[in-house]
């Protein structure tokens, strides 16, 4: 295509944007509202994902070893656990170590447990982690059946619930985002359809005098692109600003906890880029959907 | 040259608009297409520039079988066929000059060529002095002259006109006919569907009469009705 022609298409697309003032406003607004919602959902979803990941990584299986088991039996058990393909690491933790941990976890109040240092009622344990967090339950059940195992602790019930909640929220978020995107495409395609109806005669004449479909499509393609881009400006600015404030507020409070908010840089800019891309995509998609109907020969 | 062989056109609603037409129109001919409203004239004409696709049969325009033509090639066919309508089909927001230039812009001609060609055809239709006016500021006859200028600006080998004088008074119609005659004498094929008895009977050319989607009369230098 000649540069002059590209210039013409760009000019035509801007002319149409100004000529159809209210329709332009409606299209941009629908993109803005959708992208704002998509953006908010995305930010929440990604942070939830991050939190879920840290929780998942924290899930460990504690295998309490039967007090009757001697050293050889313990080693045998360790080897058996290690032979499970899903297992990642197996660490031994003596009952004294376990008690120290317990005392430490209760802080000041933990001192009352020091009485047990004389006669430790706890068990020696193996701390088992799996390669994939979802395998925790399966592995725990396998270990439970082994000899010399007193009990297996992995937060039975809670872990299942946690994984379920994480998976549901991921799916719901994804479905919501996709639903919103489709709505925006239909809204923008309808709005552009109205602007096309007003230019029906122009398209008809263009076809009569031998303009190619590509040539006719270009100004609408660009119009969709501009509408999508303009619709993305406000959501990008809002989300970056609000995330900046939220990050500055929450980050110091969460420091040291295992749940972390995603870093402002680069996450906020990634969201901005994503929204701009989505804006352009729904703008172009919407306009192409509506122009196609008028080009059927 | 346009050749139609055994052409049928049945619309999705069941109406058979063209019912087995065989015809040959040579390069440089002037042909009137006559017949009552609903006889199938418009469909017959639309088939020539692939606005309609035949249900059956072959249509060859300038050596190309347009019934087998891929959609992407249709614009190229249309660049070689000028079309004029009863309702002019001008863009109201463009000036006379811009309306004509539009036909060359969309096929990506250079501004120099566009200017030269537009001024040439404006001269031919005698509207150079109104180049900057908008269609709404012109009379019906003048608007039709702009429409004709647009149809020939790309120097097509065929000009097809669907009742070009249908909306015009008799005097203006004669002026329009003069332009078509001029175009025809330059070697362009002119195919004109018309209801204008006086014109057909006065400026004698080949007459194709269509009735019920079939050619019922094809006469060199014929009249509007059989008896003329």
Automatic annotation (TrEMBL), chain B:
Give the main location: membrane
Query: Which InterPro entries does the UniProt record give?
Result: AAA+_ATPase, ABC_transporter-like_ATP-bd, ABC_transporter-like_CS, ABC_transpr_LolD-like, Cell_div_FtsE, P-loop_NTPase
Keyword ATP-binding found:
yes
Q: Which SUPFAM superfamilies match?
A: P-loop containing nucleoside triphosphate hydrolases
- GO MF term set: ATP binding; ATP hydrolysis activity; transmembrane transporter activity
Tell me what topology the record assigns in the membrane.
Answer: Peripheral membrane protein
According to the entry, every stretch annotated as the ABC transporter domain falls at: 2-228
Q: What does this protein do?
A: Part of the ABC transporter FtsEX involved in cellular division.
Subunit structure of this entry?
Homodimer. Forms a membrane-associated complex with FtsX.
Q: Which family does it belong to?
A: Belongs to the ABC transporter superfamily.
> Under which name does UniProt file this protein?
Cell division ATP-binding protein FtsE
